[in-house]
Design brief:
With 180 residues, the protein is α/β, with parallel strands linked by helices. The chain is built from 5 helices and 7 strands; from the N terminus they run βββαβαβααββα. Helix content is 23%, strand content 22%. A 7-stranded mixed sheet has the order 3-1-2-4-5-6-7. The relative contact order is 0.16. The model has no long low-confidence stretch (mean pLDDT 95).
Amino acid sequence: MGSEMIRLFGTVDDSIVDGPGIRFAIFVQGCPHLCPGCHNPQAQPTAGGTMTSLDALMARIEANPLISGVTFSGGEPFEQPEPLIALARWVRQYERTDKGGNKRPPLTIWAYSGYTFEQLITGTPSAQATKLLSLCDVLVDGPFIQAQASYLLKWRGSANQRIIDVPASLAAGNVLLWQA
């Protein structure tokens, strides 16, 4: 990867709320949606955050044998698609083994976006965002709507958001919801 950089709001090495299992959650800096009641309003300004190398993120992912996946959140991850594409490709190729040298299941990739699946597959906000979507296993899509918010919703903030099986949806040509 070298010195490729990404602007981050922050990370959580062992999240249990950003998808199933223990996940390495990456919160990018910058979001155009400005949803009222946003969970991470400090992540909205594009000029904030901290520049971080992909190498540093990969080292932290490799150092955590407990994670079952990586989650891209924000801010808006599809506004910084290039570094996340590089990271997602690395995650796809990363082979994990246990202490006995046995292969472990591959890491899954989840992404949270204020854009909808339909917007992303048609090139909004960019063709690179569409490419990033194709590397994800699951997309939680749609803006946060405060009037539809509930703490009872698993892995999403408001009832309008969908948990989408990306590979199945791309193959079918329409949205198919993810099943645990």
